[in-house]
Amino acid sequence: MALLEVKNLGISFGGLRAVDQVNFSIKEGQLYGLIGPNGAGKTTLFNLLTGVYQPTDGSIMLQDKLLNGKKPAQINRAGIARTFQNIRLFKKMTVLDNVKVALHNQVHYSLFATLFKLPSYWKKEKEMDKMALDILKVFDLEGQASVLAANLPYGKQRKLEIARALATNPKLLLLDEPAAGMNPNETEELMQTIRLVRDRYKITILLIEHDMKLVTGICEEILVLNFGMELAKGTPSEVLNNPEVITAYLGE
Ligand SMILES: Nc1ncnc2c1ncn2[C@@H]1O[C@H](COP(=O)(O)OP(=O)(O)OP(=O)(O)O)[C@@H](O)[C@H]1O
Ligand SMILES: [Mg+2]
Q: Quick one: which of 3, 135, 241, 244 could link to 28 by a disulfide (CB 3.0–4.6 Å)?
């Protein structure tokens, strides 16, 4: 069964069709890749899926829920979390607190217990520390739990962003060029971590990545965008052998 079903999706900015008649569906548990040249509409598609922009045409369904018209916070509660092409962290908070802020969406405190710091408050805080540390461990960040996010090296900030998105307990995780600015070794390691996250948390992942080789290496299905439109869609080998992809995207 499809977790996400996108039909005839489009958005115009003035005269520009940034996303145009895009159709695809992602099955539960899939690792799905989204590629395309600069300006192809990849980030705009994420902005549509997360309610940052409202589509001019088409529909977005998450399981049986229509997402059109919903606000970003509602969409996050419905089960979609994302990371951004440019890192957005709470830089002046610790690594642990960055993740705990995201967990707060799910753990319910009684106001009374919080105000008076009752034992039940401390018990929940302890549970949250443990949950946050478990997520940090996946990204090899537990050793830096008390470091300020701003003081983490760049590659680790990118990982922390994924950890934080994951802490909102999504069904679908959208990653916008998570490996941008990383060296080849860090990138390869991150791709393995992304796969592990999918397997361990049994979630579905949609990944934007520039490197064709990386995407085809880890994704089960891929959508190629060009000028906002679908250029190709299919398994890695179908996409790699598509003559239009070879000419338009690889420029050969
Ligand atoms: N808010 C906006 N207003 C006007 N034009 C926009 C807006 N957002 C995106 N665009 C345009 O839409 C097109 C697609 O941009 P988008 O950022 O989605 O590309 P992308 O595939 O993510 O590219 P990159 O690989 O460089 O990140 C571009 O031409 C961009 O200038
Ligand atoms: Mg982009």
A: 3
Ligand 2 centre to CA of 114 (Å) is 40
C-beta 12 within 6 A of ligand 1: no
Q: Quick one: tokens of 243? A: 């003559």
Residue of 9, 11, 16 to test ligand 1 pocket, by largest number of atoms within 8 Å of CB: 16
Nearest bound ligand to the CA of residue 42: 1
Q: Which domains does the chain have, with CATH numbers?
A: 1-79+170-252 (3.40.50.300), 89-167 (no CATH)
Band (pLDDT 50/70/90 cuts) for residue 250 is low
Name the DSSP letter for residue 222: E
3-state secondary structure of 40: coil
Beta carbons of 60 and 67 less than 8 angstroms apart: yes
Quick one: pLDDT at residue 159?
95
**Nearest one of 49, 42, 45 to 70, comparing CA atoms:** 49
| CB distance 26 to ligand 1 below 6 Å | no
Per-residue pLDDT tens over the stretch 134-156: 999 999 999 999 999 999 999 99
